[in-house]
Amino acid sequence: MSKVLQFNGFEMNTPSHINHGLWVHPGNRRHEYTDLGYWLDTARLLERGLFDALFLADVVGTYHVYEGGRAPAIERGIQSPNNDPFLVVPAMAAVTEHLGFAVTFTTTYEPPFGNARRFSTLDHLTKGRVAWNIVTGYLPDAARNYGLSEQVRHDDRYDLAEEFLEVSYKLWEGSWEDDAVVRDRALRRYSDPAKVHEISHRGKYFSVDGPHLSEPSPQRTPVLYQAGSSDRGRAFAARHAEAIFLGARTEEEARTIIRSVRDLAEENGRGADAVRFFAGLNVIVGETDADARRKLEQILRYRDTIGYLVHFGGSSGIDLAALGAEEYIEFKARGHIESAERSFSDRRVREIVDHFDDPFHDPFFVVGSAGRVADRIEELADTTGVDGFNLVQYLSPGTFEDFIGLVVPELQRRGRYRTRYGAGETLRERLHGAGARLPEAHPAAVHRHAVAGVPR
Amino acid sequence: MSKVLQFNGFEMNTPSHINHGLWVHPGNRRHEYTDLGYWLDTARLLERGLFDALFLADVVGTYHVYEGGRAPAIERGIQSPNNDPFLVVPAMAAVTEHLGFAVTFTTTYEPPFGNARRFSTLDHLTKGRVAWNIVTGYLPDAARNYGLSEQVRHDDRYDLAEEFLEVSYKLWEGSWEDDAVVRDRALRRYSDPAKVHEISHRGKYFSVDGPHLSEPSPQRTPVLYQAGSSDRGRAFAARHAEAIFLGARTEEEARTIIRSVRDLAEENGRGADAVRFFAGLNVIVGETDADARRKLEQILRYRDTIGYLVHFGGSSGIDLAALGAEEYIEFKARGHIESAERSFSDRRVREIVDHFDDPFHDPFFVVGSAGRVADRIEELADTTGVDGFNLVQYLSPGTFEDFIGLVVPELQRRGRYRTRYGAGETLRERLHGAGARLPEAHPAAVHRHAVAGVPR
Fold first, then answer.
1. Which residue segments constitute the domains of chain A, with CATH numbers given?
2. What residues does the Luciferase-like domain cover (chains A, B) (predicted)?
3. Does A60 touch chain B if contact means CB atoms closer than 8 Å?
4. B210: helix, strand or coil
5. Dihedral of the CA atoms B301, B306, B308, B311 (nearest 10)?
6. Mind listing the pLDDT tens digit for each residue in A98-111?
7. Is the pLDDT assigned to residue B336 strictly greater than 70?
8. Phi, psi of B238 (to 5 degrees)
9. Which of A178, B211, B354, B451 is the most buried (most CB within 10 A)?
10. What's the whole-model pTM score?
11. Is residue B174 classed exposed, middle or buried when 0-12, 13-18 and 19+ CB atoms within 10 A define those classes?
């Protein structure tokens, strides 16, 4: 088996995303995230490197668990401050032709009608290169920014997300028929009103009349990414997701999630191949192993272990600063990121700090020459079954530059990386090798045939 | 008096904005509104023409009054379909340096926290070239897209808008102190947490903890545009607006609104010059008067009077198709656009149809050579006291091209139009000739000094 792998650049509109503290590195441009130039350069670079997409994470609150408040997150720039991820996409789309853009948006805080129009607009402007990373939100701090007095409970969040998606599908797939827009100049007929439908959605959480404001875009529904890995999260993903960004911290865990989602997707009638799986990947590559080691040493000098603990606090709800090194941690709060729970249950505080202190604890970390990195990437893909990777940055744009300059040619030699983009293909066509629209087996497709009524 | 006038291009992310029906004109690119290229070309053109800003209108529902439903609006493309206005701005910002962007967003349907971050993000990406056209929303159809069973009543909408702005000001002006972001690499200190504050807003409509997610942007609060002209709307504008887009249909009405808002602004301690006034302006200019007349004749052939009646129906709540030509119209529904009410009360249906059938009924319409157009523009500015105009399009980009090619040089010769942009100035600096930030007399400024607390 020698599957061609897919790569996304992993980004966030913030000074410190995943590998924390490195904004202080003299070769890093991360602190320029508020400048358009930073994003234009990143997009051009990834397209030159034939990446699939730029994957934009997001949170709408501040991590406020470590040391009992948000001061450490703010001081260290740990995903704070941050800016809206949608708004960097149109500028990047203007300087690229093929690169996709996956944008994170949570279903918990803002109404589905506005979000559906935003994604339709992006899908138009990018000519079908947009994906939605569906998250349900887990920060109590975020909920309080949107007037919710306490975080919606975990399972309720998924119920709400289900209905949010149902509304979105009705708007994207069911409101405007394929031939609703006619643009007939002689008849002065832009659209055929008999083919534009209200959705008249009445549910537990939402009431939405429609019709959708946007005319049909190339993909209609954006490519659907999802990241949840709890039981409920997997069921949700197996029903809706076209691609999953695995929160797995071990190869075994990745295998388990992939197998379980594939089985569930098949049970749902979508087929075992309906979902693509991406793992996070940390790469430090050099001309030689020794060169890569030198880069690693420099990165370790700037890396900020406390930053990781701040992030872990936000994700898990556990304040490691309040516990002794030999204490065992205990997950109480439901609704935080489940992969943290699976990976770190019944571990001592000391072990977790060690984990974040040493990147080698992460099996999805590799340092070395292009050959060594490519070997490990192939191995990870073959042992876990992932279809691709979200490449995490240490230096922006250094990490992407190194990967594109050194690893991509090596993977291309091995037949593991594309050598060109397909002409005019949408992100969905590239991801699945099929059509621009969601397949008929996807639950959104029923809304194509179940139009809600005619316009009054 | 020979005031240098300011000009915005008036746009909307839709096939037919104000001058209806003209998307069928063979020289019009309006139907390309879903393409980035359309917006990039428009932005480059307006910057070449030294315009102040592109002003983007928006509605989040469909006009559904004329003929008792939304079919005519959909068929004729009357502001339907439409796409999100925010998302075309970053792409246009990437190909311009000076042009401003005014984006319409309604305070009635989506939460203030997300909107505040969107505007902060745009203000960063544009380096301080963004304005918010604050509207309160008036379409019952829009309310039903956001789960509101009936339109929030007119005065409630303004109460809600007041609180929406209060939350926004707290986030923009009060949450991050000026020197909160330090980016001290040696100390690993991106921000000083003692200078980043929760806003802890508890009001009638909103509960928002904060802190704001975005770091301080060049203007903080975007330039505030407003368009309401009811009594309540004027009071709101006199309190908040830095620029008003007048809905006036006569010169006398423009004078009245301007005088009234100036007086109110002065009463509010903001000074009579705190607000800039813009009127809509329709121009058909040619090399000669005869050439302009030929253009007009062609435009009239494609112009769609029914489209104007559809738009009027949505704005006024009155279905002219259901009334006889000699009937008087009667405004019942509060909460529709008040200028329609003022202009058309106690008029016969026939008179209104005539009004829309003949562009010469509008005093802010002028056709002729550059000299004639410039004469009229000067006259309108001097008699009404407006500071500038939102130039409405017939043809996109033909109207802007003609204006920039013919009228701008004429106005420049007369000292009525800038001959260059100021280097690096924000939209607010250009509009008011003062600082990048809101002045101290603006109600937002109190939140700079009334921080809500320290981060826990």
1. 6-447 (3.20.20.30)
2. 26-383
3. yes
4. coil
5. -150
6. 999 999 999 999 99
7. no
8. -65, -25
9. B211
10. 0.96
11. buried
